[in-house]
Amino acid sequence: MDQDFKEFVDRCFEVSARKEDISRDDIIRMLGVSPDSEECEYLGSRARELAAIKSKDKATLGTPFGVDYVPCDASCRFCSFGTRWGLMEGQSYHIPVEDIISMMKERIAAGYTGFTIRTTEFYPVDKLCEMARRIREEVPGDYRLGVNTGELTLEGCIRLKEAGYNSAYHTLHLREGIALRSLPRGVCRPCVRYRNHL
Ligand code: SF4
């Protein structure tokens, strides 16, 4: 194995274990590793080790709820909800919050401990906040409530947290802004913003 790459991965491991950010260049270097290489295997094993430390090697049994079935103007290339593809034309259905609450109660009784509210790109933060407040009022228990929605401002993140969400899904997508069209080409979403504020 390339010793230089191994030391680089070890350095990134230490930085992440201290909850500090690794640099954009480091992320790009990791993404460039060949998937069939020993280096990739080493990177994966250290990532697993870090995940085990951070999660205390415990998993959460969770489930998402997609709450709006509407055409989405972001029109990501892979998504059937995209307005541009015409598959959702004339459709508009929002799951009532009462139904989400009742499904959550059923699942909590079955042992689930995490839930994610999922929406299309332009779902209003106000409605998400209202939904979280209702859920927290009517579904007691020690469960995690996440949200997977469109782009958020810092102010939006803070409001979501105050309304009752524990986390917001975010990841760095490959081909961000190209296949996934919610952002201008070449712009990476600052995922650190979400992690720090939810
Ligand atoms: S933002 Fe989400 S819902 Fe909208 S088109 Fe893209 S993947 Fe589909």
Biggest sheet: strands side by side, in what order? 1-4-5-6
Q: Hey, roughly how much beta strand do the residues contain?
A: 5-15%
Structural class: alpha/beta
The total of beta strands comes to 6
Describe the secondary structure blueprint for this structure.
Blueprint: H1 3-17, H2 24-31, H3 38-55, E1 62-66, E2 68-69, E3 93-94, H4 97-109, E4 114-118, H5 125-138, E5 144-148, H6 154-163, E6 167-168, H7 191-197
Parallel strand pairs: 1-4, 4-5, 5-6
Antiparallel strand pairs: 2-3
Helix pairs in contact: 1-3, 5-6
Give an overview of the whole structure.
The chain is of the alpha/beta class. The chain folds into two domains: 3-55, no CATH class; 62-197, Aldolase class I (TIM Barrel, Alpha-Beta Barrel). It has helices spanning 3-17, 24-31, 38-55, 97-109, 125-138, 154-163, 191-197, and strands at residues 62-66, 68-69, 93-94, 114-118, 144-148, 167-168. A four-stranded parallel beta sheet has the order 1-4-5-6, with no helix packed on it. The protein has a two-stranded antiparallel ribbon with strand order 2-3. Strand 5 (144-148), helix 6 and strand 6 form a beta-alpha-beta unit. The longest helix has 18 residues, at 38-55. The chain is globular and about 55 Å long. The two termini are 39 Å apart. Iron/sulfur cluster (SF4) is lined by residues 72, 74-76, 79, 81-82, 120-121, 182.
Structural features:
disordered C terminus; 2 domains; 43% helix; TIM Barrel; 11% strand; two-stranded antiparallel sheet; four-stranded parallel sheet; binds iron/sulfur cluster; globular; 198 residues; alpha/beta
